Amino acid sequence: MNGFDRRSFLAWLSSGVVAAATLGRGGSVAAAAPENAGPDSAGALLLRDATVFDGTGAPARPGTSIVISGDRIVAIGRWNRGESLPDIPGLRVVDCSGRYVIPGLWDLHTHSSDVTPTVPALQLVHGVTGVREMRGSEATHAVRRRIERGELAGPRMVVASNTLDGPDSPVPGATLIDTDDDARDAADRASGEGADLLKVYSFLHSDEHDAIATHAARVGLPFAGHSPSLLPVQEVVRRGQRSVEHNYGMHLSTSRRAEEHFEHLAALPDDPADPQWWGRRAALLEREVFQTYDRGRAADLAGLFVEHGAWHVPTFAVESAYARHPSRFLDDEETQELAARWLPATIRQEWEAMARAWPEWTPERAELELAYLDARLELVGDLAADGAPLGTGTDSGAAYVFPGLATHDELELLVRAGLSPARALLAATRDAARCAGLTDAGTLTAGAKADLLVLDADPLADITHTRRIHAVVARGRHHGPAERQRLFDDIERAAQQDVPLGSTRSTLGCCAPTTG
């Protein structure tokens, strides 16, 4: 660009050539001044004449244009047909007629963002413009800083603390919480490191979880993660946990015999050779009790989510991947081709080793796993029908759960669970951004962050159309077909350069290992 004429741009914008679309009446533009958006260096972008699903819950609007300056949306509305295209240096105009624009997608549960440059770029080229990295580290924070400085292609990042778990946690490198002082120190450390939330895990006891809740509030951070195995989800939500990840505890907590099951778990003695074996027993018990699912308890649980402003993040992408034995991935040509193209050899080798080491299943166990997946889909569909806030997360970074691609899998599974495509998209845009703590992201409204997708087909007619990406706009930068292909090429080249793994990072995410 040969400089951006800010004065001409603002004059054009205020002239009303992009008029608000309100029941066919011309009106003033829905606009926000491009303050702090860096228009002098970034120029401006006009996406003209798309069908726009803005993520607010409103119906899609055809013939709608979006004006972006820097990294913010400054106007959205109808283009006045009598107006010619403006001749403003630094203003790029992209014709989107016949295309569909939605907010950028979010993945609220990711891992392995430190595998650079492949993993962050994979998220971006697949339209995931925001992620919540659920196990933060010094390396993760360094990646976020590089993305924010424009040195690395990747999504916006919200970063959790290191995993906080009980004193006998089986999680390598977890921060162990046994006393109130442990919880205090962990909260202070996470705050000092710049974490956006505290991450809790499955093997916390009640007192430890309660201490984390207390000190999270003290330092002004939300806490989120697993519902601890010994606690009903209802209690976790009442304590203020921002989100409940995966479906752990969901069927135990909505069983007609819930109280009996949790009393049984609490009474189990520790095994000195495996102090947290009861946590794995809880995962198996879920599979035994889903037949006692109580629809009324689920409705009450949905009400608690609403009352306490909490979200459920089901992570069906990983749960469906492990509903069938993972050894199948070893012989799946498409899966192996994607892994070879997109991921360094060290990651591929870890994934393959996991699949080979997975315990064998009997035919009865294989049948049970598929039935259990169907039951989880039913439960989440019921929660959604009763208004529970849902967000999309995938546990990407777990073996064979590909970053970026998995978010589209998640959307399709939410629709399979009974959500409409529109509701599923809200879970991946506005609602996910709110869960991540951002009120100015996830919608296409004046003043919002300029993260969006341009699609070649209507996702409200078929949710699989979110995969038909024509362009990604992230932080106001337009990545059209040629730029996206360049990013894919860069990813494939980078995948041939192996990367060392951090000593505490696991490519198995935080969900899959417990289901073996």
Walkthrough of the structure:
- It is globular, with a radius of gyration of 23 Å.
- It has 19 helices and 18 strands.
- It starts with 5 loop residues before the first helix and ends in a 21-residue tail after the last helix.
- Strand 9 (about 130-135), helix 4 (about 140-150) and strand 10 (about 155-165) form a beta-alpha-beta unit.
- It has helices at about 5-15, 40, 120-125, 140-150, 180-195, 205-220, 235-240, 250-255, 260-265, 275-290, 295-310, 315-320, 335-340, 345-355, 365-385, 405-415, 420-430, 430-435, 480-495; strands spanning about 20, 30, 45-50, 60-70, 70-80, 90-95, 100-105, 105-110, 130-135, 155-165, 175, 195-200, 225, 245, 310-315, 450-455, 470-475, 475-480.
- It is an alpha/beta fold.
Task: Offer a few descriptive terms.
six-stranded parallel sheet, globular, alpha/beta, 19 helices, disordered C terminus, 17% strand, ten-stranded mixed sheet
Q: Determine the strand fraction and express it as a percent band.
A: 15-25%
Helicity range: 25-40%
Major sheet description = 10 strands, mixed
Helix/strand-derived class?
alpha/beta
Total beta-strand segments: 18
Q: Which whole number gives the mean pLDDT?
A: 89
Specify Rg, calculated over alpha carbons: 23 Å
- Give unreliable regions as ranges: 20-41, 501-506, 512-516
Alpha-carbon distance between the two ends: 55 Å
Number of helices: 19
